[in-house]
TrEMBL record:
Keywords: Hydrolase, Lipid degradation, Lipid metabolism
Pfam family, one: Patatin
Native organism taxonomy: Bacteria, Pseudomonadati, Bacteroidota, Sphingobacteriia, Sphingobacteriales
Enzyme active site: 45, 159
Residue numbers covered by motif DGA/G: 159-161
Segments carrying motif GXSXG: 43-47
Listed name of the protein: Patatin-like phospholipase family protein
Organism: Sphingobacterium arenae
Location of the motif GXGXXG: 16-21
PNPLA domain span: 12-172
Amino acid sequence: MRSFKKRKRISLVLGGGGARGLAHIGVIQYLEEQGYEIDEIVGCSIGALVGGAYANKRLHELGEWMKTLTRGQVFKLMDFSNPRYGLLKGERVLNNLHEVFEDINIEDLPLTYTAIATDMENEQEMVFRKGSIYAAIRASIAIPGVFTGVSVDDRFLVDGGVLNPLPLNYVSKKRNLVIAVNLDGMPIKDKTNAAPNFTARALLVESYFAMRRRLAALTIELYPPDYVVDVPHNAAEIWDFHRASELIDLGYNIASRTFTT
């Protein structure tokens, strides 16, 4: 592992995980306070969104907007669609993002930016390195069964985390210090000694998280970064955006512990 103190340029990989991704903001705040320059971001799902805001130099504005959201306001962002194709259209979310940062072509950003989506028909990853950043974000956040998928160049795209929840394999600046923020870290354990008593739904959810943890772990083994910031997968539910202040602080504190131990 290379020295965190000696290398100043960072390639930052931001994983997917719903509202837990607000922890990405806190991690970035910590890195900037330490004087590090992030000149490459690779993200999927919420990582593509937070990374896009940072690349647009509007991360602070995104965080401040998120902090204003209540449960009710989060619900109002849900534009319901035909449930056969996905619960939400996602247009209302993107329309509100226009108040935070403008659409721009990825190739015109001041740093290297890559967003990952999933091509469901061909079971392949779709990589966005040019074109509208909004189009890239919208495809990357299309959680199956939640947001409607997106058709791009005759491909049906959904959330990048389906195949690759921590896309380390798309880092291009190999000489940078590579830092991954993994939103599928081991869960915070119940402090009681009671044996697990899973309902059918709970068992399905926990099985899904176990699968994601394994995917992330295998990616880390194959493409080892210099540092991994692990955010527990049960730190927040997918729609807990009303907890923005808490989750941003969580990311900052985990980053601080990661780089000082």
